[in-house]
Amino acid sequence: MIRNFYILLLLIFIGFTVKAQNFFGTHHSGQSAIPKNCVEYGLLYNWYAATDSRNIANIGWHVPSQSEWDTLREFLDPGSDGSASGNVAGKELKEAGTLHWYEGNTGTNSTGFTAVGGASRDYSLGIFGSPKIYADFFTTTELNETYIYCVYMQYDIDAVQTSGYISQKPGGKSARLVKDTTTLSDGEHGTYVGNDGREYRTICIGTQEWLTDNLMETQFRDGNLIPFHGADNDTAFTDTEWAALTTAGVCAYNNDVSLVACDFEWDVNNRPIAQDTSFTIDRLTNETCDLQQNISDSDFAFTDEEGDTLTAVKIVGLPGSGSIDTTLNAVLKTPFTLTYTSDVNTTEEYVDTIYYLAQTAGNNSFSSDTGMMVLNVSSCEQPVECYGYLYNWYAATDSRKITSSDDWEVPTLGDENGDYGQTMGDYYILTEFIGWRIVDEPYGYLGKIKEIGTRHWNLPNSGAENFGGFNLLPNSLRSSVTGEFNGLGGNAYLMSRSGSREGIPTNTNFIKFFYSSTSAVIVGDEPNTKKYGLAVRLVNNNTSLLDGQTGNYVGNDGKVYKTICIGNQEWLAENLEETQYRNGDPIYWVKDNTEWANLTEGACCIYNNDTTYACQRPLPIEEPQIAVVGYGDLYSYFTIYDARNIANTGWHVPTWQDGKDLRTYLGNAEGGGN
Fold this sequence. Notes:
Blueprint: E1 43-45, H1 47-50, E2 61-62, H2 66-76, H3 89-93, E3 134-142, E4 147-154, E5 160-161, E6 166-168, E7 178-179, E8 189-193, E9 199-205, E10 208-211, H4 239-244, E11 250-252, E12 272-281, E13 292-296, E14 310-317, E15 323-324, E16 331-333, E17 337-341, E18 350-360, E19 370-377, E20 390-391, H5 393-396, E21 408-409, H6 426-434, E22 491-499, E23 508-514, E24 520-524, E25 539-540, E26 550-554, E27 560-566, E28 569-572, H7 593-597, E29 604-605, H8 637-640, H9 656-669
Parallel strand pairs: 12-19
Antiparallel strand pairs: 1-11, 2-7, 3-4, 4-5, 4-6, 8-9, 9-10, 13-17, 14-16, 14-18, 15-17, 18-19, 20-29, 21-25, 22-23, 23-24, 25-28, 26-27, 27-28
């Protein structure tokens, strides 16, 4: 059913307050920056804005579906239903007191969700309902082309209605966002930063992280403003215009921005009416997606009506995809240079926008009109991510040799006493050359060989220096128990050929690196470690190179690898992608998880069995499947002669005569007899 709205008989239309201020407002933490003795209902959006493909939510967040609201209700009141009287979850979600609700409010806000009575805007007439009586929220779930499911709370009712409540798409409603996946635990707080730079407090309830304020977003993720004015391009949507919308729209309750939030300032004249510059950034020629481009004040090409030139700009809207090296509301005086960094996560062509206010010579204040610096960013070629192959210990130590010459070896592990198979093992020698070691942690600075930055490593990638040009990437590991792959980004795992310190036949040792530490640690004598899938870096301890010099290594299958000399050791500067042993036998690629976990002979694989993570060709040969002798199934008489036919069209179970004819043919073919 469609709930009847409480509507004030007398509606007072209050136009937008016009101020020569930043359209995007100021930052707000939702925690202590906003005094809670002010009215703060947020903005009202229609369904088209909430579901626009340009995304009203920033990356990692979204407008919730009906089922996600049900999850919230079920967590607070297990076994309840979503009807108007079927649960008591609403009182735990509603803000307590009468600042935003009428007398008689049952809310306790025990969850910290802080739902307020923000009312709504009617879908058929465009008029506003009464605040403090009810809260009305969007979901993304459609009933049909006209109607959507919504969520309703009322001041004097304990329930939150998450089912059976529908509304038409043009209606204006409050919005809350929920995080795609949270790392918080129930009751913990976090923050969310919107597309326009506004900061919100969040709360984890159960396994979901929610905003604790109604949304006040003014732009989409791509930087485009959410439409807020009518046909005259100057004032807020009229009631008639709002009801007729079939595209995105946003408004303040009663068109009064003072009811949005204490710190919210919105000037309807402060809109992007002029596109001052269209700037092209060519990533294709650089073959990289994180190209940096300098933009100087002369590129803005801005003059006012009197012809006065630009003296300063105020940044009032940040780009939605890439980034610039300044902050929202920053004032840049000429001459200046902005550095724009393109979005590394997309290889496609896209458009980004920087919004700004201009100040010109002879004017002491910034313009009321918002300028637009439009950035046309070309496509790019994503660099190949060379994570290499993963090998089990049996392949690394096979007598047929994974290396192409005896000078090159799979490295060994050894502590100060040579307890891991070889005195002063290869990794230990490398660590000692880096220049720091302690008795209790002999690989304390080995993490310096990690690739610098967070292109591949998770934050903070502590201690990474790419020491000596080793360029260690955070490759995956394949489990010896399940055969599944760990994710990329967090750790790196490198093979050693050293056996078990304890002499256990199925165990070995390898070395592990962390995104959060400079240290590396030995993973030793864990069960079935020989079956792990690990990356391999070969080492040459008889090199003719000097420290810092580079060279090449040619594998058994002809692949060529870069090498780097660090101290007296020559190492591969990339992970191994060998497909065969020295005698030409293939190192088979085993894809099946269960089969991998049960291996007792050499094998290799590629992360997630995805060849895009392999840099060179040829690829390894997949393990041949052993043909299974098929004896077929056994059928009863009734099955064979069932009228529904066990055989497909044109075939049948043989008759006695069919067998006799076969026997006769075979007998005659052999010169008589049976």
